[in-house]
């Protein structure tokens, strides 16, 4: 019999705890709806603070994806001397392909180079030339290095190709890729710093909003303290209020970034097509969007919890 009574009491306590959570959530939403302009201002400020680092992060991720596509074309162009025959160029291509640091070698004969220039509209200028002045060209693709920065291996390959007796000019533009990687690493660090600073700003915005709500309900809180309500019971509605601010701000920040993506996608795709590329912007997938909204809600929850906890530590029933 006692076991049944204890079970009923436990179920009653759980039911009361659940009911108060639901009431706190609904009451928080009601207070937000009663102050639409103040609510919209708070959510807007938080959303902008969240959208700035998120936009920078999305931009860096798209640049990294574009850089990854570019790095797939890491060829070293080896222009042979004009007196090197096509047979010798073909044999040299086979020798280079057998090297461990070379993944692929493509031979472009002088005739192929001349035909390519004709296709680009230079036929009239080429007709005035006597013979074919173009050399054989070997396009050497380095083997992918296991190291994070393969610029050093590619540079060594370019130097070894330049030392070949058949080599005339070696073109290898690896410096810009190395600088791009450095800029991307700096941008990622900057994104984290901005995320920390603006996240702190969003937390303070929620904290100040909750503080004002606490001040307007000071008498109500004092009565609850005199009646013996726990700090958790008093704090709970304000925690839900902060979480609602954060969740709505996170959703609004994603809406701002989506609108920016829609506005920039078409002109960027047109620009990419002019360079013969199919690159396009990539936004946040559903899991990332959900994580962003969750983190925003957590920021609101923490800001409200910090302010409410500070107030309750400073206020005692005898102080009311």
UniProtKB/TrEMBL annotation:
The chain crosses the membrane at residues 37-60, 190-210, 238-259, 289-312. InterPro entries: ABC3_permease_C, FtsX, FtsX_ECD, FtsX_proteobact-type. It is a multi-pass membrane protein. Keywords: Cell cycle, Cell division, Cell inner membrane, Cell membrane, Membrane, Transmembrane, Transmembrane helix. Residues 193-308 form the ABC3 transporter permease C-terminal domain. Belongs to the ABC-4 integral membrane protein family. FtsX subfamily. Forms a membrane-associated complex with FtsE. This is Cell division protein FtsX.
């Amino acid at each position: 019999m006692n076991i049944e009574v204890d079970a009923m009491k436990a179920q009653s306590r759980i039911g009361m705890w659940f009911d108060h959570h639901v009431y706190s959530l609904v009451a928080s939403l009601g207070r937000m709806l009663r102050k639409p302009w103040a609510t919209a201002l708070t959510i807007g400020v938080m959303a902008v603070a969240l959208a700035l680092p998120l936009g920078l992060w999305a931009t860096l991720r798209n640049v990294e994806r574009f850089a990854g596509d570019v790095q797939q074309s890491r060829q070293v162009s080896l222009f042979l001397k004009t007196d090197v025959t096509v047979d010798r160029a073909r044999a040299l291509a086979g020798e280079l392909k057998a090297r461990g640091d070379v993944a692929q070698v493509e031979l472009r004969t002088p005739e192929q180079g001349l035909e390519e220039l004709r296709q680009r509209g230079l036929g009239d200028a080429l007709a005035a030339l006597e013979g074919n002045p173009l050399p054989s060209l070997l396009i050497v693709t380095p083997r992918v290095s296991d190291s994070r920065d393969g610029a050093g291996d590619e540079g060594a390959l370019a130097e070894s190709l330049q030392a070949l007796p058949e080599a005339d000019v070696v073109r290898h533009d690896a410096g810009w890729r190395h600088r791009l990687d450095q800029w991307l690493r700096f941008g990622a660090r900057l994104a984290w710093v901005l995320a920390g600073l603006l996240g702190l700003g969003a937390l303070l915005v929620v904290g100040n909003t909750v503080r004002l709500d606490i001040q307007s309900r000071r008498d109500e809180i004092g009565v609850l303290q005199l009646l013996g309500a726990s700090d958790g019971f008093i704090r709970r509605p304000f925690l839900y209020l902060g979480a609602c601010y954060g969740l709505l701000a996170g959703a609004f920040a994603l809406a701002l970034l989506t609108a920016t993506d829609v506005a920039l996608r078409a002109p960027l795709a047109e620009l990419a097509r002019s360079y013969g590329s199919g690159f396009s912007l990539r936004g946040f997938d559903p899991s990332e969007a959900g994580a962003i909204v969750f983190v925003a809600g957590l920021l609101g929850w923490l800001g409200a919890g910090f302010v409410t906890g500070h107030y309750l530590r400073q206020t005692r029933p005898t102080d009311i």
